[in-house]
Design goal:
The chain has two domains: 78 residues, Roll (SH3 type barrels); 138 residues, CAP (Pathogenesis-related Protein p14a). The chain contains seven helices and eleven strands. The strands form three sheets. The protein has a five-stranded antiparallel sheet with strand order 6-5-4-1-7. Strands 8-10-11-9 form a four-stranded mixed sheet, with helices on both faces. α4 packs antiparallel against α5. The chain starts with a helix and ends with a strand. 30% of the residues are buried. InterPro entries: CAP_dom, CAP_sf. Pfam families: CAP.
Length: 254
Amino acid sequence: MKFGKLMTITFSAALFTLLTPVSGNAKTKVRSYENISNATYTVTNKNANVYSSAKLTHKKGKLGTYGSKVTGYYAAHVSKNGKASIYYKFKVGKSTGWVWHGYLKKAKPAEKFNEAVTDARFLTLINQHRTAGGLAPVTLDSNLFQKVTLVRANQIVKNFSHTDAAGNFIASDMADAAGFNAGYFNENLAYDFWQGSNQATADDIFHMYFYDDAASNWGHRDNIMSAQATRVAVASVYHDGDVYNVMNFYSSLN
């Protein structure tokens, strides 16, 4: 059941219950869960209670401690003592919580996603960091972008992986098939929620690549800072509230 359909209820008493938070003191029944598109919400009540689950049995603190904006991505339709309401699950970084949806107002994006602007920001960040590290900047390769990197950006929306089912390195195989005689070839993949700004989204993803990559043994940072890489293609796509990014670094044997 979609949230929008619930808002079409015409009985005033029923509509009132949907717009009112329920207390977490008594037993709460979760009637259904619903995936909602990732979206940025503005906090309208900093003193609102945040719960650890949609059952509303454990309070985690106040909504204001999570900042002025959060990302909502999941919904629960709950009821208690005949009173119905909707709670949203939100995230800020790695922190999550549940709060009554009426305490969150969907924020209007400051700007629309623009692939060219986002990718240009990535290239700027790549070469700024390479130059600061004493490396030559990499050159943007539009041919690689069209034949490999942009295709990969759309692929990882459904299959977020460097390899196919047989374990083959997808991007490298695509580059070989397209005639790129690569002496060095590597790939970075990442995605993050759209932050309402092309630059802010690119900056956040790049920060993950370069400064928050311990889980990957700093492999993404190593690709960015590879002395072997002379060319790069960068592609980003927007899907369902998230921005997916691919960077392909290479040098030619020719």
